Amino acid sequence: MDHMEEIKNVDDKSEIKNDVDDADDKNEIKNNMDDMNEMNEIKKVDDTDEIKSVESMNEIENLDDINEIKTVDSMDKTKNVDKIKAEDEIAYEIAKGTFRGFNYEDFQDFQDLSNISDELSEIKYAFLKINELHEFHVLKFLKENDEAEYYNKFKREIKNLKKIRLNENVIKFHGVTKDPSKNFYSIVLEYCGDKNLSEDLEVVSKKGWPYKIKMAMDLAKGIKFIHAENIILCNLNSKNIISYKDNLVITDFSSAISVDSQMKSTIKITDQNIVYVDPTCFDSANKFNKPSDIYSLGVILWEITSGKSAFLDNNGQDIEELKYSLINGERKLPIELTPIELTPVDYKELYCDAWNKNKNKRPPIKDVINCLDDIDLDLVYHDYDIVPEISCKENKSITEAEACLKIIEGSPRNQYLFLPEGEILLGRKNSNYIFIKDQEINKKHAKISNYHGKVEITCFDSKSKIFINGKVFSRSHILERHDMIKIGRSTFQYFPAREFKNNIDPRLKIYNNEYFHESLKKEFNKNKKELCVLFFDLDFFGKINKQYSHDAGNYVLKELSKLIQNGYVRDNDIFARYGGEEFTVLLNNSVLKTAYETAKKIRSSVEAYPFIYEGKNLKITLSMGVSGMNSSVKEFEDLLNHAEEACRKAKEYGRNRVIIWENEQISIKKVSMLYSAIF
């Protein structure tokens, strides 16, 4: 019983425990449900916040849209204000009489000028009907859709044009007009024809040089006027220059800037205009300046002389490659801007200086005008070697005792230029004391100072190269006896004071007998292998003096001397008057065969030369002797005596012939048979 009760109690306890467990489960379920309800509440709150957040973001986006709309609206209002302000300024200028406002309806018969238009503007011309008068005018429309930018460019161009209305080589600004169908004003300009210089170059190139220089001067004067107002064109080229009634007019100011403002040029560099643009301005950090226009002018000056346009077809060449070559001064372009044959040297030098890659070395516009005004039309460019003409100012006070320069290479050869005491100039300009007509030297190339027996030659700049005895010197050089001086294509030999008087025959201007002996002795002691002497005499010369006059004889001697000196005597040879009508030639570095050939040429040329005196042709012939180094020559006098003896034999054999001395005299008739034995 007790046991049963215990069991019952246990069961009751278990039941109680089960009840408790059930209660715990219920509480847990309740708690779980409470938690779920709480989480749902939180989720509801989160969802509400998210909804509120999205609504807030939408409100913000709507606000941004509103602000953006307000900003755009504000910008439009600003642009409208700018436009109204610009148009008010234009109306004010018109009312003030600064320029004229034209009624667009008064213009008729519009025609496009596509050859003058460019990427920045559109050009038309039209009749302006005023009462019964009809006038041509040009209307310029800027290619710009942005109103604010349009009026910035418009006002800038008008401001520049207003400054330069009084020059015949710059287009005249008349006023403005407004096409009702367009939003913007356009510029009204003078009509200067419808043909640009680029189209007219072939015609210009066929004109004479006075005409071409006049064209170049038109441009230079126009640029001078523009630069005087501190305006820089930036885009000067032959397409925006009008050729009208033999006058050139600069027409385009679309890219022009004022030095006085901080504005940059709006020029767009293309493969078309790149040749004209200053290469230093390819870098946007570098500003256009007046030398930039000088560069463009240099290219146009080349076009005037060549008859070719420098405008380029792309030909597949990369514009960056073109820029690189121009920046480095290489000018490797599809059209090479090479010098043109027969262009005046002064003109060629001018345009080359104008496009110097160093803008600081380009001439200012006033120097360009001075150069154009002083061009020597007689000195023209050749792409081949010529013999330069050399002359010297007449100076009656100078004597032949002064130091002098002998012309070795140049025309006339073997003339002597005496150097007065003091300073003289040398160059290609005819105002120099020594004038050398040579494209390879400068207008003023060098200065020669002659003080107290010391003669010094000085270069003016690094381009003025002078060679002394084959070596170039940079600045000054004191000349020494017999220095060889090369300047351009001319060569001179220097003689100190009194040497000419002591060593030169005063009448014939060749060496005298004393100098010949001195030179022969000197060369014999130095070179005993390759020396030859020619000795010759004029046949029957006494008859010339008797039959005609001594003046006729003097004429023959002078002509003969010039003929031989200029035609057959080398720089290191010595040609001298031995006495009366006798002459000698010392041939340095020459073998007997060469000397004989030279003698033959001299004899035949003298026989053929027309010695015309007072209308009469005087027949002149020579008897010549030739000697060379051989075993019988012990002293220098032997060489001279052998040649003189051979000359005497030539006279005995009938005159007008050449005899070689070779231990026994050989006549010219026998030489051909004995050549193998002699040589």
TrEMBL record:
GO molecular function per UniProt: ATP binding; diguanylate cyclase activity; protein kinase activity
GGDEF domain location: 529-663
Residue span of region Disordered: 1-34
Gene3D superfamilies: 2.60.200.20, 3.30.70.270, Transferase(Phosphotransferase) domain 1 (1.10.510.10)
GO biological process: cell adhesion involved in single-species biofilm formation
Residue ranges, compositional bias (Basic and acidic residues): 1-33
Every Protein kinase domain range: 88-385
Bilayer disposition of the protein: Single-pass membrane protein
Segments forming domain FHA: 424-473
GO cellular component: plasma membrane
Cell location: Membrane
Pfam families reported for this sequence: FHA, GGDEF, PK_Tyr_Ser-Thr
UniProt xrefs under InterPro entries: Diguanylate_Cyclase, FHA_dom, GGDEF_dom, Kinase-like_dom_sf, Nucleotide_cyclase, Prot_kinase_dom, Rev_trsase/Diguanyl_cyclase, Ser-Thr/Tyr_kinase_cat_dom
Protein family according to the UniProt entry: Belongs to the protein kinase superfamily. CAMK Ser/Thr protein kinase family. CHEK2 subfamily.
PANTHER family assigned: DIGUANYLATE CYCLASE DGCM-RELATED (PTHR45138:SF9), REGULATORY COMPONENTS OF SENSORY TRANSDUCTION SYSTEM (PTHR45138)
Protein's UniProt name: GGDEF domain-containing protein
